Amino acid sequence: MASNAITVKLLIWRQSGPTAAGQLVPFTLENVLPEMSFLEMLDLLNEKLVREGTDPVAIDSDCREGICGTCGLVINGIAHGPNSGAATCEVRMRSFRDGETIVIEPFRAASFPVIKDLVVDRAAFDRIMAAGGYVSINTGSAPEANAIPVQRASAETAMDAASCIGCAACVAACPNASASLFTSAKISQYALLPQGRTEAGRRVVRMVEAMDAEGFGNCSNHGECEAVCPKEISIFNIGRMRREYLKAVL
Amino acid sequence: MSVLTDVTRSTIGKKLLNGLTGLLLCGFIVGHLAGNLLLLLGSDAFNTYAYTLHSLLHGAFVPLAEVGLVVLFTAHAISGISVALARRRARPDGYQKSANAGGKSRKSSSSTSMIITGVVLLVFVITHVAQFRGGFFAPREYADVMINGHATHNLYALVVDWFNQAPMVALYVVVMLLLGTHLRHGFWSAFQSLGAANPKYLPIIHGAGVIFAILMTVGFLMIPIYIFLFVDPVAGGTLIGG
């Protein structure tokens, strides 16, 4: 056992299925190294649970390097945990003290039903994307750099919006469970570029309708979404979505 | 018409409506405060102001403004309450542990209490209008005063009577502090709701919102407190039951 290993007390949301009642279940985990990622710590727990013959805690993860948006937990009441600009997989156990109690819950929203334990169904985001998060025509391969002039500021802002990985932490953190930041980032990345401009009006109306139909809450401009976003997507995208919507319906 | 109903049903339409009506109501309270500060100058100044306001547009100004204000308050309240109702539907099962993310978040006691301060203000506005516009529950009957040769209500005497009552002053102090709380988040949030905030101007708008909230709160607080401390009830008229 490494000398700097810590012991953590975990309170993990366990729920056997979508309709089952869930509750926080306590676990004590020893030999947690500060270098471990949060997910590696949960792997350690699950290995222990498997050895003990207990059902392991269901978690979602894929790339484990902060670019896929698959992992997502609410750690001590904050989506993606204590580090800003980082996904759950990028949180290291050095952020926690020896003996600390860590409460781990799934992303909570009526539109994200719990599948099991900490895994939620985020297909609602896919349906919002399907409603308009694309360019209808084939734009071909990368065009010659100067063929379509794009202002540098627009290119940068579009890229910032496009860096959204769709992890849904914005919904999880929003006191209203609103999907405004996600939807606005997806709308912005197209609206700012000439290739996406043609369909901008139709896109914003359809995507907003889809967002509302999924049952997400409305936005109160709290800004918690931006604070927890692993890609630090700005709430100015939400302002842009509102402008685009107004332009489209007037 | 169907476009309009679609828009007002959408989450974004409700925010646009809430922000727009909110800013217009901000404009209203500035005018309301400016006029009411004349209370500090005494009976003639305030009653002349009240009389002048009621004689604008051959007497049509006040009824027109009142209709406009009813529309504004109703639209603002409905769009605001809808946000609070949507929240319950969107997250029926809350977190066992919740915390603020900090950093760039603008979540505050002001932003999370908008529905509470809003509902209190709505109830306040209704009772306030009944109290001063309707003259309900007036402590006594008032003889008209002459302004520019016209007999007009002695609204000044009514206001002074009410604000010589400590519980009423206390109530107004509490509600005006809640108004300040509502404005602190509401002012900048309205610009964001209208898509009118950008990275360059947001710090200015946010700062202006705080200053606006403080100015309005202090301005409205000055009136009841000043009257309670320094102005005695106007003589004359009949005390009801007196």
Q: What would you report as the Rg of chain B, rounded to the nearest angstrom?
A: 21 Å
Give the helices and strands of chain A as they follow along the chain: EEHEEEEEHHHHHHHH
Written as H for each helix and E for each strand, in order along the chain, the element string of chain B is: HHHHHHEEEHHHE
Give the full name of the CATH homologous superfamily of the largest domain in chain A: Alpha-helical ferredoxin
Shape of chain B: globular
Describe the protein in words.
The complex is a heterodimer of chains A (250) and B (242). With 250 residues, chain A is an alpha+beta fold. Chain A has two domains: 6-115, Beta-grasp domain (Ubiquitin-like (UB roll)); 123-249, Alpha-helical ferredoxin (Fumarate Reductase Iron-sulfur Protein, Chain B, domain 2). Chain A is built from nine helices and seven strands; from the N terminus they run E-E-H-E-E-E-E-E-H-H-H-H-H-H-H-H. In chain A, strand 1 and strand 2 form a beta hairpin. The N and C termini of chain A lie far apart (66 Å). With 242 residues, chain B is mainly α. Chain B has one domain (7-89, 139-236). In chain B, 69% of the residues lie in helices and 4% in strands. Chain B is built from nine helices and four strands, in the order ααααααβββαααβ. In chain B, strand 2 (145-147) and strand 3 (150-152) form a beta hairpin. The longest helix of chain B has 30 residues, at 61-90. At the A-B interface, strand 4, helix 7, helix 8 and helix 9 of A face helix 1, helix 2, helix 4 and helix 8 of B.
List the helices and strands and how they pair.
The complex is a heterodimer of chains A (250) and B (242).
Chain A: E1 6-14, E2 23-32, H1 38-51, E3 74-75, E4 78-79, E5 101-105, E6 114-116, E7 119-120, H2 123-130, H3 152-162, H4 169-173, H5 180-191, H6 194-197, H7 200-213, H8 224-228, H9 236-249
Parallel strand pairs in A: 1-5
Antiparallel strand pairs in A: 1-2, 3-4, 3-5, 6-7
Helix pairs in contact in A: 2-7, 3-5, 5-7, 5-9, 7-9
Chain B: H1 2-9, H2 11-36, H3 43-55, H4 61-90, H5 109-112, H6 114-133, E1 140-141, E2 145-147, E3 150-152, H7 155-162, H8 166-193, H9 202-230, E4 238-239
Antiparallel strand pairs in B: 1-4, 2-3
